[in-house]
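Summary for the steering committee. The consortium agreed at its last meeting that each partner would contribute one worked example illustrating the joint modelling workflow. Our contribution is presented below. We chose a case with several input lines so that the handling of multiple components could be demonstrated. No manual editing was applied between input and output; the record is shown as generated.
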Amino acid sequence: DAGVTQSPTHLIKTRGQQVTLRCSPKSGHDTVSWYQQALGQGPQFIFQYYEEEERQRGNFPDRFSGHQFPNYSSELNVNALLLGDSALYLCASSSGLVLTGELFFGEGSRLTVL
Amino acid sequence: EDQVTQSPEALRLQEGESSSLNCSYTVSGLRGLFWYRQDPGKGPEFLFTLYSAGEEKEKERLKATLTKKESFLHITAPKPEDSATYLCALTHFGNEKLTFGTGTRLTIIP
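What follows is the complete predicted structure of the assembly.
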């Protein structure tokens, strides 16, 4: 049973560029959430997708956008990259809109902005 | 606004030396209190979810407990492989995001 898978695992970009990160949820899950984790900090919620719609959003600017596909996979897009966007980006999946149980995380995509 | 504070920031123990990690929280209408383990450069690994004060859950050398203001993660006779950062997080009714603390970095010395 495959867990949450993310790609790419590592990437390096320069300021002003755009990046797309991808996530496939755990089998049987239909809800995907994205988190940003800076070094030495806990993960910070970016947004949640369910039924191909953004359902909840954290305190992140519009430069952060996402998409969920009919097969429940998801993308996170970040435009006009800043140095402060360097972080581990985590995808998490669960079942249903309401988080009542376990939330499973992928291994993350490490983004470095130079 | 939900707040989660974890202490200590870092903890070094000898192998076999039991201890506890603390997670203090402020929330209106707690739905769930989560514990995760995170190894360097990896995603968080789910350990427990607690839902109401007085609840306890165990897994191998770990036991999590919950009161109305805090949660404890008790580690009994730890081994070097228990070394990791332990994260506490919560969610409240009407909110589907997890609010995380900054974690406790645990090191078990052989």
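The interface with chain B takes residues 4, 33, 35, 40-45, 48, 55-56, 58, 88, 90, 97-108, 110 of chain A (CB under 8 Å). The first strand of chain A starts at residue 5 and ends at 7.
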